[in-house]
Amino acid sequence: MAILGIFNKSNKTGNLVNNVQFKISTELFPYKLYSNRKCYSTLTISITNISDEPLLSSLNFELPSQLSFDETGISHNKEIKLGELSQNELKKINVNIYNNLKADAGNYTMIIIANSHYKDYDHVINSIRKKEIINVE
After folding, report:
1. Cα 88 to chain centroid, rounded
2. Domain residue limits, the chain
3. CATH fold of 24-136, please?
């Protein structure tokens, strides 16, 4: 850790790099979207800090091109900065997912990425990915 000593930084994040830091659970209501008409579902994400120390956290979402986060169908990526989560703190976030007329019937995969950061949102210590299946009928 001599490199960290050069830049006058301590190795406080050493035990966080390889450990699971978050517990993520999701709920989709209504549980399906309908093809060839405009509709939306609300995804409720519950994230809990299960590490031993407070973490600066954020969530990133990635959708396929057939689904979006707005009614116009333009926004397929979204980032929500959660701030500092203390130990065992739970936060619930609601995100609307819109169907546009391009979506055919089938299953689409949404990727949810929970990041823990070092001092600011530019430096990521660790991230956890979760895939959520969205059904379009």
Report:
1. 18
2. 24-136
3. Immunoglobulin-like (2.60.40)
